[in-house]
Write a structure and sequence with these properties.
35% helix, two-stranded antiparallel sheet, Amidase signature (AS) enzymes, alpha/beta, 452 residues, eleven-stranded mixed beta sheet
Length: 452
């Protein structure tokens, strides 16, 4: 099964291997990436903040020092989402008033990527306050989908996915609380991974209205939200996860044909457009013909409608910092503890499901790349099989893995036609907590079967 690919530029590990073999210097790798950005980005607007001068300096230093132990990304030029602090660059979350506020230090993840040998050549575009499945703001403009300029690349890591899909860079790191890594990967036809909650630290990923206050210290990651990578292949995803991880992850190799999979393609209140449903059904049929065991229903699946309501409440409280909702109501401590209990119950139910199944397959979103709009997707409607549905209904599919803190890998599986345009389509591979590398490996095995 073919899927749209826009570039044959080397991935992260391939680039590092070329540097280590002496085929190209780090400075030359960085220069090539910058040239690609200069050629492509005027039409895409994926790069919000260039870091070219500092990147050249870091590249020369790496060339002079040579590779060191523990540098699997040695010589790899990459970008990172605008919302992560990079020393000397602004972090605006899309707000004009923060454009002149420069980060005094690198985010912890940025430090880990640099220690692994990567060179950060810039920061990629986001929606205002990271709250949309589009990526536009008054500071840096609108990012378009490199497959179709009339469509969104997704959000909030839309600039990240567009930069990777177009071939500007081999990889990027984004964040995800409402599908913000997985939906851009799905919309742009690349690989993305939502990490287990708490695996990759987000210290230095703080709203600029807070992070520049005197005495502010980011003490902990916020609930639900994670940092996760985007790339054009599974091995690159895996190494990016390992570089960012707080703890070592174990691999439990198991051939896909020995796994028991559960495919969920329909949920109450979350209709899926035919442009997504048909490629996923075709993929499931191909896997079944290859001998992969896939169940289509299970009584063990947690009540997604119930947990979606709790997820939405927890996400809204988290993203508003506990401020009153638009209706003036403010969550109490009692409300928050009730949500924590609901989340714990959800985690226990998923754990019981994964005692019977290895992975769950599901759509990353209910639609393919949406047309551009000046209104946030979640504040309007989306077209699903010709009917207008609330934009927020798509969050059911992201919340499936987010609320219980599960890892989920999105792989490109093919394409579909949505509102008259042929666009990439992806699929989620969800696994037990801390099985991040196994999720990525299973997604890779699925991809190998689909694209054989």
């Amino acid at each position: 099964m073919a899927y749209p690919q826009l570039t044959d530029n080397p991935g992260a590990l391939e680039t590092s291997a070329a540097v280590l073999a002496g085929k190209i210097s780090v400075a030359e790798a960085v220069d090539a990436a910058i040239v690609r950005i200069e050629e492509l980005d005027s039409a895409i607007d994926a790069l919000a903040v260039p870091n070219f001068e500092a990147a050249y300096a870091e590249a020369r230093a790496l060339d002079a020092a040579g590779p060191q132990p523990g540098q699997p990304l040695f010589g790899v030029p990459m970008t990172i989402k605008e919302s992560f602090d990079v020393r000397g660059l602004p972090t605006t979350f899309g707000h004009q008033q923060f454009r002149e506020q420069l980060a005094p230090r690198d985010a912890l993840l940025v430090r880990r990527l640099k220690a692994a040998g990567a060179v950060i050549i810039g920061k990629t575009n986001v929606p205002v306050d990271l709250t949309d499945w589009q990526s536009f703001n008054p500071v840096y403009g609108r990012t378009v989908n490199p497959h179709n300029p009339d469509r969104s690349p997704g959000g909030s890591s839309g600039g990240s996915a567009a930069a990777v899909a177009s071939g500007m860079v081999a990889c990027d790191y984004g964040t995800d609380i409402g599908g913000s890594v997985r939906v851009p990967a799905h919309f742009c036809g690349v690989w993305g991974h939502k990490t287990t909650w708490g695996l990759v630290p987000k210290h230095g990923h703080d709203h600029p209205s807070m992070s520049r206050r005197e005495g502010f210290v980011a003490a902990a990651d916020g609930p639900l939200s994670i940092a996760g990578p985007l790339a054009r292949n599974a091995p690159d995803l895996a190494v990016l996860v390992e570089v960012g991880a707080e703890v070592p992850l174990r691999r439990r190799p198991k051939p896909l044909k020995e796994c028991r999979l559960l495919a969920i393609t329909a949920l109450p209140g979350a209709p899926v457009d035919a442009s997504v449903r048909e490629p996923i059904e075709a993929a499931l049929e191909t896997l079944a013909r290859a001998g992969v065991r896939i169940d289509r229903a299970s009584d063990l699946l947690p009540d997604q409608a119930q947990h979606y309501r709790s997820y939405l409440k927890m996400m809204n409280i988290t993203m508003s910092g506990g401020a009153p909702a638009p209706d003036g109501k403010q969550a109490s401590a009692r409300d928050w503890f009730a949500l924590m209990n609901a989340q714990a119950s959800c985690m226990a139910q998923w754990k019981a499901l994964f005692a019977q199944y290895d992975f769950v397959l599901a759509p990353p979103a209910s639609v393919l790349a949406v047309p551009h709009s000046d209104k946030a997707v979640f504040r309007g409607t989306i077209s699903i099989d010709g009917a207008q549905e609330p934009g927020s209904s798509g969050l059911v599919w992201s919340g499936m893995a987010t609320f219980p803190g599960l890892p989920s890998t999105v792989l490109p599986i093919g394409s579909g036609t949505y509102l008259g345009a042929e666009l990439p389509c992806g699929m989620q591979v969800i696994g037990p907590r801390w099985s991040d590398l196994d999720c990525i490996a299973a997604a890779e095995a699925i991809g190998n079967i689909l694209h054989a």
